[in-house]
Backbone:
C-alpha cells in the first residue's frame, strides 16, 4: 500500500469511519490489475487507488460495500465463465467477467470498522473498571469527568471535563452514567438528547426510580425514559461497586452479540444488478454508465464496446437470450 492510501486509512480511522482495503493477491495477464495493487473503498463505494479496470472495479466496489456492511472479509475470483467452472471453490466468491483481455484476478477484501464507542460519565470505581476492561477489548472510551485528568482514567481515549456529549454519538454509541448521584439527572438529560443506542444508569433500583421520577416531573416523555436501562448491567448478585463496571460491560457485549448494538457497519441495500445482453456480465443498474433503449426496454452494459455492438444488431443478442 502506498503512502497516499496509508494516509487516507489513517484519516478514516481517526474519524471513526468504516472502510475497506482491497488488495489484488493474484493476477493472470493480460489484466490492468497487478498483484499487490490495492485500493481503499469507503462505505459509499468511493474508490481510491487501483485494483482493476472497467470489468473488475464495479464488482469489487459492490462486494466491498457488502463486506463493510456485514464486517466479514472476502476473497473474490474474477475470471471468464470457463475459469469459474474450472476453479470454483466454496470459500471464494467467484464472479464471471467477460472482458476481451481474458485476464483474471483474485482480490482480498478486508473491512476496517470503527471500534465500539462507550461514553462513561463520572469518576466512580465502576467507570474506572469499565474504562480499563473496555480498553483491553480495544474499544474506544470517552470519559466525562467534571474534575478529571487523563491520568485519572488510564485506558480512556479521551477525557472531557464539561458535561457535553462528544461529537459522533449515534446508534452505535453506548452511554453509561455512573456519577454516584453527583449529577446523574443532567447527565441523563444530555444523553437523551443524542441518538445513543444504549443509555445506562449505574444506581440502585430505588435510586434509579427516584431519578426517572425526577426526569418525568421535568416533562421528559415516557418514550424517552424507556430508552434508559436502570439499573445498568447484568445482574451478578451482591457485588462491589468497581465490579459493576464488569456487569455493565458484560451487558454491552451480550447486546452486541445478538445485534442489538450496531458494530459500526452501515446498512447496505442489496445492489440491483442486471445482465449485459452482449457479454453476459452482471451490471449494477444504479452505477451503470453505458445504457440504451430498444423497443421500450432499457439495457445496461459493462463497457462502451458492448453497448455499440448491441446497438448495431440488438435482435441478434436478444434472440440468444430467449
Residues:
Amino acid at each position: 500500500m502506498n503512502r497516499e492510501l496509508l494516509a487516507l486509512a489513517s484519516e478514516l480511522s481517526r474519524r471513526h469511519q468504516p472502510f475497506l482495503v482491497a488488495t489484488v493477491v493474484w493476477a493472470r495477464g493480460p489484466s490492468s490489475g497487478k498483484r499487490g495493487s490495492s485500493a481503499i473503498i469507503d462505505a459509499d463505494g468511493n474508490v481510491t487507488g487501483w485494483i482493476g479496470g472497467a470489468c473488475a472495479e464495479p464488482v469489487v466496489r459492490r462486494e466491498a460495500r457488502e463486506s463493510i456492511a456485514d464486517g466479514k472479509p472476502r476473497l473474490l475470483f474474477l475470471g471468464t465463465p470457463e475459469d469459474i467452472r474450472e476453479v470454483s471453490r466454496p470459500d471464494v466468491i467467484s464472479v464471471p467477467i467477460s472482458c476481451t483481455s481474458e485476464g483474471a484476478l483474485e482480490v482480498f477484501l478486508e473491512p476496517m470498522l470503527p471500534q465500539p464507542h462507550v461514553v462513561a460519565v463520572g469518576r466512580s470505581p465502576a467507570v474506572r473498571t469499565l474504562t480499563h476492561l473496555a480498553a483491553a477489548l480495544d474499544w474506544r472510551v470517552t470519559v466525562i469527568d467534571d474534575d478529571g485528568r487523563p491520568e485519572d482514567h488510564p485506558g480512556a481515549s479521551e477525557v472531557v471535563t464539561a458535561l457535553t456529549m462528544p461529537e459522533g454519538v449515534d446508534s452505535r454509541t453506548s452511554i453509561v452514567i455512573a456519577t454516584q448521584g453527583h449529577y446523574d439527572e443532567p447527565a441523563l438529560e444530555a444523553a437523551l438528547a443524542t441518538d445513543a443506542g444504549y443509555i445506562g444508569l449505574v444506581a440502585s433500583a430505588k435510586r434509579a426510580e427516584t431519578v426517572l421520577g425526577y426526569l418525568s416531573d421535568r416533562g421528559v416523555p415516557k418514550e424517552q425514559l424507556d430508552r434508559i436501562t436502570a439499573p445498568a448491567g447484568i445482574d451478578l448478585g451482591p457485588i462491589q461497586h468497581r465490579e459493576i463496571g464488569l456487569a455493565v460491560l458484560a451487558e454491552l457485549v451480550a447486546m452486541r452479540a445478538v445485534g442489538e448494538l450496531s458494530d459500526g457497519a452501515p446498512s447496505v441495500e442489496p445492489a440491483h444488478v442486471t445482465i449485459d445482453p452482449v457479454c453476459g456480465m452482471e451490471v449494477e443498474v444504479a452505477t451503470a454508465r453505458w445504457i440504451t433503449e430498444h423497443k421500450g426496454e432499457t439495457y445496461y452494459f459493462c463497457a462502451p464496446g458492448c453497448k455499440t455492438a448491441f446497438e448495431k444488431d440488438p435482435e441478434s443478442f436478444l434472440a440468444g437470450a430467449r
